[in-house]
Amino acid sequence: MANASVTLQIATLPDSPGVYQYYDKDGKLLYVGKAKNLKKRVSSYFTKNFDNNRTRLLVKKIVTIKHIVVKTETDALLLENNLIKNYQPRYNVMLKDDKSYPWICIKNERFPRVFPTRRMIKDGSEYYGPYTSMKTVHTLLDLIKGLYPLRTCNYDLSEEKIRAGKYKVCLEYHLGNCLGPCEGLYSEKEYHDNIEAIRNIVKGNFKDSLHKFKTQMKTLAADLKFEQAQRVKEKIDILENYQSKSTVVNPKINNVDVFSIISDESYAYVNFLQLSHGAIIRSHTLEIKKKLDETDEELLQLAIVEIRQRFNSLSKEIYLPFEVELGEDIKTHVPKLGDKKAILDLSERNAKYYRMERFKQAKIVDPDRHEKRIMAQMKKDLRLSEEPRHIECFDNSNIQGTNPVAACVVFKNGKPSKKDYRKFNIKTVEGPDDFASMEEVVYRRYKRLLEEEQPLPQLIIIDGGKGQLSSSLKSLDKLGLRGKIAIIGIAKRLEELFYPDDPIPLYLDKKSETLKIIQQLRNEAHRFGLTFHRSKRSKQALNTELETIPGIGEKTVVELLKHFKSTKRIASASFEELSKVIGPSRAKKLVEHFSNK
């Protein structure tokens, strides 16, 4: 609940779109937000019960509320973005990026140079970009240099100086990389025609250049200038090869921005693709650190404004995974199928790959962050009240109704803790009864933990459907643990998760990390239980075999096992070794039996 001073400030807020700013008692800016209706939005902070601890802490610290009224929600979005970048308030999502990106510069000169740069100088030069990697810039410049001869010197090629013969051609001219504008050997008009073609290539439009080169090649071939025609043909091949690599969708899709978002508990990843004539001319993924449990819509809206400002995008059409309010001047489209949907899927795939890379890096550099993220994700996905740092999973094994056993595997912080694994012989159940066996094992496990005052798990997973889950609940009821430990059942076929007193199962995303950990737990419990079951069945079979040998009784079998520890060792023991334990007569019978086998 807000104090009297804050309540008064809220009461005087207008019902208009704008930006609000929260300050603490020391006048430090805590948070910047935008709203369609300032009064309603700010009031909601003091009337809602927030699940997020950070939001509750923010609200407690607010002492002063300032606001700026704007005409539209789009203006509010732009202003909010600028204020966050300028002041970087503690509770706002992090959009910090100090990286300086490379550009391609077409210099404002009589014979313009074309080169890469990280500095923008406002001298009338043209800048294309920014690009997210210098490799892309060099690839484009190599393509341009292979197609059009341009000067690389920084001489002042004014008409007077050229006419006065101040400069001489350099090595680049003799190598054929420059056509000598410094000596007036290359006309200004022809040079500027090439610069116009370069502008189109940088924008992703190869059509004009291809048409020009094909016309030129045909003219040269008609004049029987085959060597020159071949050189032009090589340029066409370079251009077509580059175009085939860069064109990923319908070439009619022109001047479009594509955005997608992937998020988890702590971070969101927004991918941006810029398309021109069906070619991706730019790709960038922005990592956003969440602060107050922001929605994907809020984060995407903010990221779009930030990215379009950063990359100076003027595209009037945007493809999005869901509707986002961006103002009347921009046309938004949510593709459902066809080429447009394919390019949106490609953007989403880029965001996912970037996220996976960051996870791998975090796992190596900061394992704790990786662990916390998985635990927070599991808590959210499985609707738990606390993070499942300690999980136990149970599985029954009673193949062909013999030797019923059960296994309990333990995961701590998302990883197997093998020293805590336990195996159980079923004692009170006769015959193959999965439900009764599960009830017995769960009861024995947690009765012992309670007696020994050992820590209890936050989550129990039962390998089985509703029946096994109900049986396990009976045991928890007997021990007074129902409601104190979360328990779910996982059905084998469809990966359905069953909850107590809920007939409708939960289905997790097949690619989710939560489901992968649950499957790993279930598979590990199955493997551990099966290994124990096979071992027990094998021992029983071998022990029974020893007793079937004529002249070898139960006491003899016990003596042998005490000394040799296993039937395998008994079978491979020599006559002398056996004689020392059970005498030569019975030793002879054993040796004959195993040699006949």
Automatic annotation (TrEMBL):
Matches recorded under SUPFAM superfamilies: C-terminal UvrC-binding domain of UvrB (SSF46600), GIY-YIG endonuclease (SSF82771), RuvA domain 2-like (SSF47781)
Domain UvrC family homology region profile: 262-476
Keyword Coiled coil attributed: no
TM segment ranges: none
Subunit annotation: Interacts with UvrB in an incision complex.
Protein name from the UniProt record: UvrABC system protein C
Main location: cytoplasm
Annotated gene: uvrC
PANTHER family: UVRABC SYSTEM PROTEIN C (PTHR30562:SF1), UVRC/OXIDOREDUCTASE (PTHR30562)
Function: The UvrABC repair system catalyzes the recognition and processing of DNA lesions. UvrC both incises the 5' and 3' sides of the lesion. The N-terminal half is responsible for the 3' incision and the C-terminal half is responsible for the 5' incision.
Keywords: Cytoplasm, DNA damage, DNA excision, DNA repair, Excision nuclease, SOS response
HAMAP family reported for this sequence: UvrC
